[in-house]
Amino acid sequence: QKEVEQDPGPLSVPEGAIVSLNCTYSNSAFQYFMWYRQYSRKGPELLMYTYSSGNKEDGRFTAQVDKSSKYISLFIRDSQPSDSATYLCAMSAGEGSSNTGKLIFGQGTTLQVKP
Amino acid sequence: DAGVTQSPTHLIKTRGQQVTLRCSPKSGHDTVSWYQQALGQGPQFIFQYYEEEERQRGNFPDRFSGHQFPNYSSELNVNALLLGDSALYLCASSSTSETQYFGPGTRLLVL
């Protein structure tokens, strides 16, 4: 069993839809949770960064972490064709009080937003 | 403010050869991590450098080695290349106050 599970999709939605992306994990030591967006043949771009449980909102993006269920989500409101990309969840146990440890990634979910 | 930069962007090697990839971290970052991303997969952690020493290592053979310089830049070396080493190699930099930011990657093809 992988430490981090993510449905690879692909996921196809119409423009303006609300998108929900999810990951589950097995390691209860994970404290830091990230979502990266990766366009084809490019490096991952940090979207959201959350420490421990709770919600975080940034514009059209909302990240949720439920440590009791070992489940994290990314919601995209009013999705746009430019949101079409692969979304990677990543998590880390951290090193002491800072997030400098290795990241464990999900497989990535490919999202297509159709005009 | 330049982000993480990597060179070269692409390269092609043959089996058995050796390759060196380079990374310059984001300004203010002192930690560099390397990841390998196979097609259709998430990145896999290779190792991390801090204060010019390897701090953590993933499940990669000794053919994979690295170095960090006093200016925090880093190199990844892969010896005795195998076909399975073909992948996108990503460098990420971080600090105690910032999480990991990735560079554009180096795409390696081994023939």
At a glance:
Chain A is 0% helix and 53% strand.
Low-confidence sequence ranges of chain B: none
Distance between the termini of chain A: 37 Å
How large is the radius of gyration of chain B? Answer: 13 Å
Hey, roughly how much beta strand do the residues of chain A contain? over 45%
Q: How would you characterize this protein structure?
A:
The complex is a heterodimer of chains A (115) and B (111). By secondary structure, chain A is an all-beta fold. Chain A has no helices and 11 strands. Chain A has strands at residues 4-6, 11-14, 19-25, 32-38, 45-51, 54-58, 61-66, 71-76, 85-92, 104-105, 109-114. In chain A, strands 2, 4, 5, 9, 10 and 11 form a 6-stranded mixed beta sheet that branches. In chain A, a hairpin with a 4-residue loop joins strand 7 (61-66) and strand 8. Chain A is globular and about 45 Å long. In chain A, 37% of the residues are buried. The mean pLDDT of chain A is 92. Chain B has 111 residues and is mostly beta strands. Chain B has no helices and 11 strands. In chain B, the strands form 2 sheets. In chain B, strands 2, 4, 5, 6, 9, 10 and 11 form a 7-stranded mixed beta sheet that branches. Chain B has a 4-stranded antiparallel beta sheet with strand order 1-3-8-7, with no helix packed on it. Chain B is globular, with a radius of gyration of 13 Å. The mean pLDDT of chain B is 95. At the A-B interface, strand 4, strand 5 and strand 10 of A face strand 4, strand 5, strand 9 and strand 10 of B.
